[in-house]
Amino acid sequence: MFRKFFKSRIYVFLAIILLLGFFLRFHNFTVLPRHGATFDEFAWTWLGINIIQKHVPVSWSAQPQYNNRYHLRYQGAAFWIVEPYLEHPPLFGLIAGSFSLLNGAKDMLDVTLNKIRPLALILGVFSIFMIFILSREVYGKGVALLASLIYATIPTLVIGSRIVQNENFLIPFWLLSLYLIIRYLKTGNKTLRNTAAVIAGLLSLAKVPWLVVGLSLSMLLSYKGKWKDAFLVGSITVIIFSIFIVYGLYLDKELFINLWKLQIARYDISFSGFFSIFRDPLLVDRYYLDGWIFFGWFSIFLLSKEFKKHYLLLIPFLCYLIMYIFAIPNEPAHGWYRYPFYPFLIIAIANVIMDEYKKISLISFIFIFLVGLPALASTWEVSFGFSYVVYRIFILLGAFSVLFPLWTKRDRLNNNKIILYWFFLFIILNIFSTRMYSE
Question: How far is CA 354 from CA 306, 357, 420, in A?
Answer without folding.
Answer: 16, 5, 9
